[in-house]
Amino acid sequence: MPAIPQIDPTSGAAPEVQPSIPLASTNVTPAFDPSKVTVLFILGGPGAGKGTQSIHLVQDYGFKHLSAGDLLREEQDREGSEYGQMIKDYIKDGKIVPMEVTVTLLKNAMQRELDSGKKSRFLIDGFPRKMDQAVFFEQSVCPSKCTIFLDCPEEVMLKRLLNRGKTSGRSDDNEESIKKRFRTFVDTSMPVVDQFEKEDKVIKVLATGSENDVYERLVENLAKRDIHPVK
Ligand code: C5P
Ligand code: MG
What we know:
Layout: E1 38-44, H1 50-61, E2 64-67, H2 68-77, H3 84-92, H4 99-115, E3 121-125, H5 131-140, E4 146-151, H6 154-168, H7 175-198, E5 202-206, H8 211-224
Parallel strand pairs: 1-3, 1-4, 2-3, 4-5
Helix pairs in contact: 2-3, 2-4, 4-5, 6-7
Bound molecules: cytidine-5'-monophosphate (C5P) and magnesium ion (MG).
């Protein structure tokens, strides 16, 4: 895997990036051309159903699904990764991993998919979770087409996560970590959704009820944005 930019592995301190949207004042060119590569983000609190709905979207809309959390967990477990311990600590604590790591993992995964000649439509799940990630990704990787936001009350998400925790084996599916993840979502990730909303780039869907209920709403709302199943 191509190198990840240098981050102090002990403190986890990433180079300072000043988040500033709108993005007009940059002359960095994104790695991928948004007229050839389509990026949709899917966001929502922990337990909102991002992974679950992504499975349907991949089947019906032909996206390549990339989950930021899954890529981080993979990197955490990769033998010899210098970021493994840092990622582990951040995830357990429900904190956002320094964005250079996550953006690089995503960019590399996109590059691999494009090199294989398979898909050029990406559904990026659980990202961007923080304003600096949004800015850095759109500047250096690819501007997004829009963001699906799964809107779900905390009590519903808590129930789902505690249930998932019985079998997921995830270090953060316990009540203490879940509470921290909820706070991180409200304080750090919602501002990203709010900013994209101001740019009219958010497809907001109520994420309560059954998996199928949510998916039906999602399909309806995507159609309004002229995004349709491929089969
Ligand atoms: O999306 P998921 O619930 O799998 O994410 C698990 C954890 O991975 C988050 O709570 C956070 O610690 C980390 N993460 C991150 N930045 C992202 C996505 C996930 O730091 N963009
Ligand atoms: Mg997930």
